[in-house]
Amino acid sequence: SHINLFQLCQQLVNNFRVTPAQKHQILFDYQGEQENIYLDENIVRQILTHLLSNAVKYSTDGGLINLNVKGSCDQVILQVCDRGIGIPPEDRSSLFECFHRATNVGTLPGTGLGLAIVKKYVEIHQGEICFESELNVGTIFTITLPIVNC
Ligand code: ATP
């Protein structure tokens, strides 16, 4: 159905601002004339919740997190940026595999399932997911979801 993507993202970010991200600053930027978009609300909610949780968890000292969203007639781009621990090069090719956790997670908790789930949701939506990362600098996840019925 049609969802208000701006409102949904704002709501999710606000939930994160209360807790668990007290040390972090989360900036939300929305670009696009169109706010009511034909997308599955549950899928967008699941994807962003996983990515924002990771951004918080893997930037242990706090810091800036960005959620940048671009909505247009034929696609939506969701981008989550953090300034955290980054992903070591040797872990990048298996990052979306179930139970895979990078070698630099230390004692940070997790199952290694979140990103595998995110990837499934993206595939259900016939979208794409990619990331860029630099060790101890940060990570950017970008998801593109096509809009079929506009
Ligand atoms: P859970 O899903 O239970 O939260 P998780 O965080 O370990 O566990 P995923 O979300 O699947 O699982 O992530 C897989 C691995 O990718 C993580 O263990 C971590 O090594 C790495 N990772 C994911 N997101 C980030 C990020 N934003 N910064 C650095 N590493 C990340």
TrEMBL record:
It comes from the Bacteria. Signal peptide: none annotated. Residues 1-149 form the Histidine kinase domain. This is histidine kinase. It comes from Stanieria cyanosphaera (strain ATCC 29371 / PCC 7437). The chain holds residues 344 to 493 of 493 of the full protein.
